[in-house]
Amino acid sequence: MLLRQELKAAIEAVLFTRAEPIDIEELSRALGVSVQDTREILQELISEYNRSEHGIQVVESDAGYTMCTKPEYFRYVNNTNRSVTRRLSQAALETLAIVAYQQPVTRPEIEAIRGVRVEGVLNMLVDRGLVAEAGRKDVPGRPLLYVTTAEFLRIFGITSLDDLPRKDEEA
Amino acid sequence: MLLRQELKAAIEAVLFTRAEPIDIEELSRALGVSVQDTREILQELISEYNRSEHGIQVVESDAGYTMCTKPEYFRYVNNTNRSVTRRLSQAALETLAIVAYQQPVTRPEIEAIRGVRVEGVLNMLVDRGLVAEAGRKDVPGRPLLYVTTAEFLRIFGITSLDDLPRKDEEA
Amino acid sequence: MDYQVRLEAFEGPLDLLLHLIEKNKVDIYDIPIAVITDQYLAFIADSVEADLENLADFLLMAATLVSIKSRMLLPRRKVVDEDEEAEEDPREQLVQRLALYRQYKELASHLAAREEGEEPRVYYREIPADEQEEVVPVEVKLEVSISELVKAFQALWQEKTDEFSYPLPQGDVDVGEKIAELLQRLPVLPDAMVFQDLFWDVHSRREALALFLALLELVRQRRVRAVQEEQFGCIVVGLQPEDDSPA
Question: Which of A83, B46, B148, C201 shows the smallest number of beta carbons within 10 Å?
Fold first, then answer.
């Protein structure tokens, strides 16, 4: 059995290592403590990292808990970022924007907005793990539904879809 | 120009994102401060993260500075980071649904319902241990029969096939 | 045209239209449809060699534009009854599509800026190369629920039952066939047929495209002539009389 302080350190270590959000149930199972205790410690970590001397933070989203940098330090991180990103094409970005705001969304719905076929670009986005299938829509033809993934959040530095600018309600 | 506290937060953010050690010269250039100041702040970060409430640490090596987990928490990290969350594709889900409700069932029978070939997806389900072969059907061609496994019950959180909701006969 | 832009430079017909609207410095909510249509048609006529996969969508829009243009030229019906809704501006639907597409185009450029780190954003930890290997599914945790499974199954049965109620599009429609069909259907000038009437019994986008391509080809070969009779404002098409070819 871990001391509470060790437990907190262990959670911090797990959050650090995980590159994507972790579920609170999974975390509590891995540590062998209750979900309740895990949640309390996570809250402590969140408020500690929220203090201004820290450049990183712990955030909670629908997908779980994750550690990431604070947005205000983006320039310094970007200056030192060596990861060679394969830039996404305009077609891919437009398709992603539609999926992000309209999800879950079908291919015909995306095509209606973009005015072109998107099968190829959509398959590429699924292959790269930026978009995933999520069931079928209950309309004739039963088209697949698509949603964005944790990898989407990673690539665009988003903690939740609320980080994206609001789309005007009236087109 | 950054305040000293912001500088520290910025360094923390950079160290966090970098997978490989970063050189002190590169760090000071990216932040626009002297190597001397950068080194002082790095030392502060090292000693702060050394405190026992932290599960991560900042270490200095010949290659530069890097952030990593403390060895005593490897165990917890390993408990979680080996599992990768993947959603089942719609094709897999549909095939699995047919096996679950119609078992034991042959591949041609599944294909008759789905209207597409299922060889690839069926093999994948067998590889993942969700579906298993269970003898052959006594009809011409003697096709293999498939059933769901204990792993299938575990994944879906059910204790027996009787827990499956009844298929609506009039669907 | 005084500028050289290739069709491939545009993401699709809506993108090309937005470009033309911007270039002409006109309001998206009051598009001078005749001018824009002419420029649009001139543009795709220059790009007819481009790959057909893309061209299909551009041509479909061309047909839409031509149709709107001719409807704009029709005298507007006067609204007598107050209760009756005012007649819709023929451009209405297109304007809505353009406005919506423009929004997503802006959102896409916002995403690009985030991807490039040009705007405030968070960064997640890079995954070290050795960990990446390790993370390759040792144990794959499947994220799925029982209700999804049941839904999938019920829907499959549903589909099986409904199998014959939704006719599926039957393969590709042949442009050559459509050319033959047009040569048979079109009256010989001076008799002619209203452009839109050609599309009345067309049921799929592919078929509409094939028909439009066939028409373009016949116009190019000068076997068909498209005439806009100002009196009525409609575009009419008819066969060029065979013995009447210009000397």
Answer: C201
Q: How many residues are recorded in chain B?
A: 171
Strand C224-228 with C235-239, pairing: antiparallel
Judged by CB atoms within 8 Å, which residues 28-87 of B form the interface with A?
30-31, 52-56, 67, 69-70, 73, 76-77, 79-81, 83, 85, 87
pLDDT tens by residue, A76-103: 988 887 665 668 889 999 999 999 999 9
pLDDT tens digits, one per residue of C67-118: 888 888 776 655 555 555 556 788 888 999 999 999 999 999 999 888 888 8
Q: How big is the CA angle at A44 (ends A39 and A50), to the nearest 5 degrees? A: 125
CA distance C133 to chain B (A): 11
* Higher per-residue confidence, B155 vs B119: B119
Q: At what angle do helices B90-102 and B107-114 cross, to 10 degrees?
A: 120
Return the domain boundaries, chain A: 4-74, 83-163
Q: What is the ipTM of this complex?
A: 0.72
Half-sphere exposure of B130 (CA within 13 A, CB side): 23
Tokens at B133, concatenated? 């072969």
The CATH classification number of A83-163 equals: 1.10.10.10
Dist CA A114 CA C101 (whole Å) = 6
Enclosing H/E stretch for C142: strand C139-143
pLDDT at position C51 is 53
Q: How far is CA C173 from CA A114, C59, C165, C167, C179, in A?
A: 23, 15, 22, 15, 11
Residues linked to residue B148 through DSSP beta bridges, in sequence order: B131
Fold matches, A4-74 and A83-163: yes
Has domain A4-74 been given CATH number 3.40.50.10610?
A: no
Lowest mean pLDDT among A147-151, C124-128, C138-142, C170-174: C138-142
Task: Please state, in angstroms and as integers, the Cα–Cα distance from residue A170 to each residue in C20, C100, C103, following that order.
Answer: 23, 9, 10
Render pLDDT for A21-38 as a digit per residue (tens, 0 to 9): 888 998 998 888 999 999
Angle between helix axes A90-102 and A119-127 (nearest 10 degrees) is 80
Tell me the whole-structure pTM to 2 decimals: 0.66
Inter-chain touch C107–A164, beta carbons under 8 Å: yes
